[in-house]
Design brief:
- The complex is a heterodimer of chains A (about 500) and B (about 325).
- Chain A is of the alpha/beta class and about 500 residues long.
- Chain A is built from 18 helices and 22 strands.
- In chain A, helix 8 crosses helix 18 and helix 14 packs across helix 15.
- Chain A is globular, with a radius of gyration of 25 Å.
- Chain B has about 325 residues and is an all-alpha fold.
- In chain B, about 75% of the residues lie in helices and about 0% in strands.
- Chain B has 14 helices and two strands.
- Chain B has a two-stranded antiparallel sheet.
- In chain B, a hairpin with a 2-residue loop joins strand 1 and strand 2.
- In chain B, helix 8 crosses helix 9 and helix 12 crosses helix 14.
- The two termini of chain B are about 30 Å apart.
- The mean pLDDT of chain B is about 90.
- The chains are: A alpha/beta (about 500), B mainly alpha (about 325).
- At the A-B interface, helix 10, helix 11 and strand 18 of A face helix 9 and helix 10 of B.
């Protein structure tokens, strides 16, 4: 007990153009829960992917159980007892619990798979954990919390001593969290080391022993949880200066253009109320999974709404599908370019024309001359680097793809432009061009709102910042008031899930 | 060639899908010349117009299937809808109904089947393979039941010899400008749908849905409506093919159009239409149908048997897709 089972020192890892990890140290002891915290993009996942053998090209040393591990791979890491309980559970929904637990290492009987032994073994592990699941149930029929338990059982069945849990409570109810914590405490007692990645700092008091804090790919500190306060942890997480320069344009704040009232859509969009005025950019801040993307999708009519009213220029508009939104002057440049933004198999011309067919044609027939002019204008305005507009949009670089996605919307006289993560995965130069463009829209009196997980970007660009957490708006700040601390505090203001304090074991 | 012409040519060649279409055209010409050298009667005027007529049906089912394939779906009911068209129009004519009215009633039935397929796939999100398998069986069943499980009598028994001959001439045996009417008819239909696909909003929507449904929806495309439209286009093409077969035989045949859905796939795929959606142009389908019929015609002329013809066409279909796969991987 309490011996060092994982020690990672001086870990560096680069992706093309980004230094993801910069001399990071990490240590895990048996019988403890180590919380690993940091903002989006701090490098937590990257670090854990190195530990579990997913990323192989790095510098630094990884020691597991005291032995230096070189050329780790997922299989080897598993043999050494490392298991990840993923945020998005990786399971074959159509297979049974036992089959999932033994996936890839099925036990063989004389002639075929030995189901009976597998189910008996699985039952034993489940009993040990005190979980009420039958091994023959199919995993798809279980609630998420139980599926998570199956993952934990699977980790135990391969005799994992090092368990990495990535946001394990994000999809659970308070009762289920209780159950999870009970199991974590049990595992702890049996000498397992648990890496606990979570944004929900207020849950830590129930289980966490030590904390490691990362920021921008760097190791900041680690220490006993008891000696840290919530405020201290937050200030360690954000304590950076904003280095990038953001072009800011001052505009007179005019009349209200866009208003959303009492919007509800699923678990991640609860009771959303906000408005956007002429001459301002509103930024949506929050942690991953706070419901910001879901909110934009509900507004734009991609996902169905349960309730809520939307007003453009004071008039209520009904938006049931993206078509309605576009017709009413609301457009969205979505988060996932490849999935939602572009028809990658089609030419740039086709992509640009698609939402603007009504502008470049009449009676359902496309006017080629007008189409060409439209494309030319977008290419020129956005400085899209391409030999011509006939090439596949999928062949463009990320930044240029983003310009096509954004550009196709700006040919219309929209009233409200929503950007979801407009600068994700594009280079610095292209970023500035996108910022300039947003400012230009603001000057034209168009309501601009954008979602971004990069805090400097939100603070540098937005005139007003709305912070979301867990599907609700938890605060609103003007650019002048906003500090990184205050935003992060609002972004982690999870509703108290009433966790019972039953850890008196 | 001056500079302006050069850039125009470059642009023409850079149109997506043009490469595959031109490859198919080149293949068509090569095959034609090779068979012509072996048997010079391939070059005869009569053979050329026969060839054009025989490719017409395949061109039409090719257009039908290409429309559906470009949205990333498939229509297995094409052959059955052809039979529905042939049997309903023939049965009504043998009962003495005027040909125009009989054909229009057949059209309504074909459209109904097309709309049903479209709604099942577009609105209820059934896998197109299953949905159109259903309409395939239903369509074939209807064509059996229309005339009480038998083929119809000759059309002349109902509408008289003169009217029956006129009907047959319009759709099959007659010529205009020295070429069989069948070809002109197919060409006009092809040009209309070619125009729709390349120049209209609907065409753009079809490509967008086939390339990326989510992005299309987020760009304001009505995916359900677009999906229904392609199945309707398919059923219109099938209707015409049914009338052609009816005119050719001078009667209605319950087994008409058997396997035509697969002939449609072959025509499209040879010309570079991707069954995965979003890629390919109808010009390619034209070349594909042409290449196939040139091949069949040539093999016929040198005395190869039907079995051999089928084997060759199988190899060509797979070869065409393999070629484009290899080309894509090279990138």
């Amino acid at each position: 007990m309490n011996e060092v089972i994982v020690s990672m020192t001086d870990i560096c890892k680069s992706f093309p153009g980004v230094k993801a990890l910069d001399h990071v140290n990490f240590e895990l002891r048996s019988g403890e829960v180590m919380a690993l915290i940091g903002e989006n993009g701090a490098g937590k996942s990257t670090l854990m992917k190195i530990l579990s053998g997913v990323y192989t090209k790095y510098s630094g040393t990884v020691k597991i159980n005291g032995d230096v591990c070189e050329d780790l791979n997922p299989k080897k890491a598993q043999q050494l007892g490392v298991a990840i309980i993923h945020q998005e559970l990786n399971m074959c929904k159509h297979l049974s619990v036992a089959e999932n637990i033994y996936l890839g290492r099925e036990l063989r009987g004389k002639f075929c798979i030995d189901n009976r032994t597998m189910e008996a073994e699985a039952q034993k592990i489940l009993d040990e954990l005190g979980i009420n699941i039958k091994p023959w149930e199919s995993v798809g029929n279980l609630p998420v919390s139980k599926q998570q338990m199956v993952e934990i059982a699977k980790a135990l069945s391969i005799n994992a001593k090092i368990m990495i849990m990535d946001e394990p409570t994000s999809a659970l109810t308070s009762k289920e969290i209780d159950e999870l914590f009970r199991i974590i405490r049990k595992l702890k007692k049996e000498g397992h080391g648990i890496v606990y990645i979570s944004h929900r700092l207020e849950e830590f008091q129930h289980i966490v022993d030590r904390v490691t804090i990362m920021r921008d790919g760097q190791y900041i500190m680690s220490g006993d949880f008891k000696e840290l306060t919530m405020d201290k942890m937050i200030s360690y997480m954000v304590g950076r200066e904003i280095k990038e320069k953001f072009p800011r344009v001052q505009c007179e704040k005019g009349k209200k253009i866009f208003e959303v009232r009492n919007l509800n859509a699923g678990k991640m969009v609860r009771d959303i109320n906000f408005s956007v005025y002429e001459g301002e950019i509103v930024g949506f801040a929050g942690l991953m999974g706070a419901g910001r993307t879901e909110t934009t999708r509900a507004i734009f009519g991609v996902d169905p709404k349960e309730s809520g009213e939307i007003y453009v220029d004071g008039k209520e508009v009904k938006i049931n599908c993206p078509r309605d939104a576009i017709r009413n002057g609301v457009v969205l440049a979505p988060e996932d370019r490849k999935k939602d933004g572009l028809c990658t198999k089609l030419s740039i011309r086709h992509n640009m024309a698609l939402p603007n067919l009504d502008l470049i044609g009449k009676h359902g027939i496309v006017n080629s001359a007008k189409e060409e002019k439209l494309c030319e204008k977008i290419v020129k305005n956005f400085q899209i680097k391409t030999p011509n507009v006939e090439i596949d949009s999928g062949n463009l670089s990320g930044g240029n793809q983003q310009k096509v996605v954004v550009g196709k919307w700006l040919a219309r006289n929209s009233r409200v432009v929503i950007f979801d993560e407009p600068t994700r995965g594009i280079d610095v130069g292209a970023k500035v061009e996108i910022y300039n463009l947003m400012n230009q829209l603001k000057k034209q009196g168009i309501a601009v709102m954008f979602v971004s997980s990069e805090m400097p970007e939100v603070m540098g660009l937005a005139d007003r910042i709305i912070v979301m957490c867990d599907g609700r708006i938890t605060g609103e700040l003007t650019a002048a008031e906003a500090t990184q601390d205050s935003i992060l505090k609002m972004a982690t203001a999870f509703k108290n899930k009433n966790i019972s304090d039953s850890e008196g074991e | 060639m001056n500079r302006k012409e050069q850039t125009a040519l470059k642009k023409f060649l850079s149109i997506r899908g043009m490469g595959a279409a031109l490859t198919a055209f080149a293949g068509l010409i090569i095959i034609y010349i090779v068979f012509g050298i072996i048997n010079p009667s391939v070059f005869s005027g009569q053979n050329i117009i026969n060839l054009l007529r025989s490719m017409s049906k395949y061109l039409l089912v090719g257009v039908a299937q290409s429309y559906v394939m470009i949205t990333g779906n498939v229509d297995l009911s094409i052959g059955s809808v052809v039979a529905v068209s042939a049997m309903i129009s023939a049965t009504l004519m043998t009962k003495g109904m005027t040909p125009v009215l009989a054909c229009l009633i057949a059209l309504v039935c074909c459209l109904a089947l097309g709309v049903i397929s479209g709604v099942l796939v577009g609105k209820f999100k059934l896998p197109p393979f299953i949905a159109t398998l259903g309409t395939m069986f239903v369509g074939r069943g209807i064509s059996y039941m229309v005339n009480g499980n038998r083929n119809t009598d000759a059309l002349a028994t109902g509408i008289g010899k003169e009217a029956a001959d006129r009907f047959s001439n319009i759709f099959y045996y007659g010529k205009t400008f020295g070429v069989y009417n069948t070809f002109w008819l197919a060409l006009i239909v092809f040009l209309i749908f070619f125009f729709i696909m390349s120049k209209t909003f609907t065409g753009r929507h079809i490509y967008a849905v086939g390339s990326n449904v989510d992005a299309a929806r987020l760009s304001g495309v009505d995916v359900v409506k677009t999906t229904i439209k392609v199945y309707v286009v398919s059923s219109v093409c099938c209707w015409i093919v049914g009338l052609i077969l009816c005119a050719q035989a001078g009667m209605g045949n319950m087994e008409a159009g058997n396997m035509y859905e697969m002939y449609g796939v072959a025509s499209g795929v040879i010309g570079g239409v991707s069954p995965l959606g979003g890629a390919g142009i109808l010009l390619g389908t034209f070349a594909g149908a042409g290449l196939w019929q040139t091949l069949e015609n040539g093999l016929n002329m040198i005395g190869a048997q039907v079995g051999m013809q089928r084997i060759v066409i199988g190899v060509i279909v797979v070869g065409a897709v393999l070629l484009s796969e290899l080309r894509a991987h090279k990138k």
